[in-house]
Amino acid sequence: MQNSNVLQASVSASFCVSSNVEDQARSFSGWGLSYTQISDGIFRGSSAMSAAGGMSFLVEDLNKKILQRGTVPKNRLAIGIPLELEGHSRMCGEQSTRDALHVFSCYSEFEFLSPERHIVANVEFDIPSLSSDLTQQLGQALHAKLLSPVVLLTADAAENIRQLLRQALGSIQAGEVLFPEQHKERLSLLERNVLYGIMEAVADFPDLTSERLPKPNKGWDLVKRVQQLLQNPDSCVLSISELCIELNLSRRTIQYAFENAIGTNPAKYLRAVRLNHVRHDLMSGLSVTDAAIRWGFLHLGAFAHDYRVFFGELPSATAKRYGYAKTLMAHHPAD
């Protein structure tokens, strides 16, 4: 029989609400994640998390278009199934739909563009930590099979996975795996149910019909090239004219690629990414003027207006709030 401390550590549940994308990205334990807000307006996100042994669940609710980039820790299988998904959605450049399985762990690094309204149920398996040899073998087999970032399912198969994850979450939240004398057996049964259910749903993958194959998007490669230019203030392009010269492409080519790939024109995208960089710098303690100039905003009045429209507050409010928080931490350090 396991002692109560081990038992309590193996099963957990929590819920958090975020008002900025950086806090939201930290919901995924151990992932090297960065979130960039693409559509304007006040961001609201939430994460409902549950874990049982080597298996964890996270239901994420986002109200803005977000470009997510990151890596999944080694030896983990991580997939998601949308509960709600409307609008442009791309997983590593491939078209996604509500009835698609998103495989975050298929590449060393993933890029996911979530639409304006997005709720997704994620399940993650830390394969070495699964409770039995059988479930570890199942996890390894599924990991080896899911080598594409998007698996387009039938509507019935997608709904079966949603129902499966709801039932697993319900079991954890109801405490059905908390009996010490049967804990390992119940945990193994829960893992088996989820793993076998997912394996059944993707049993014919990759031998899918042409109608169900994910459709690559040529514009995504261009979006990735632009994203790389925007990561460093020294190379950050400030206008479409500058971007055309840098990439040796016409304005029309760039415009078409962005509209087709992410449903946003390139000018708005450049502004959105630069504003995200400024917000990150303000949260790190940089002054409003220094952060704005660092990312190419020379007209501070126009910058402050754009920032407020995009994030719902003035840049000075962001700087003051996070500066105040850092001051409190400096005066009252954690034990």
Automatic annotation (TrEMBL):
Domain HTH araC/xylS-type: 220-321
Pfam family, any one: HTH_18
Keywords: DNA-binding, Transcription, Transcription regulation
InterPro entries reported in the protein's UniProt record: AraC_XylS_family_regulators, HTH_AraC
Taxonomic superkingdom: Bacteria
PANTHER family named among the record's database cross-references: HTH-TYPE DNA-BINDING TRANSCRIPTIONAL ACTIVATOR EUTR (PTHR46796:SF12), HTH-TYPE TRANSCRIPTIONAL ACTIVATOR RHAS-RELATED (PTHR46796)
The protein's name: Helix-turn-helix domain-containing protein
Species this chain originates from: Vogesella oryzagri
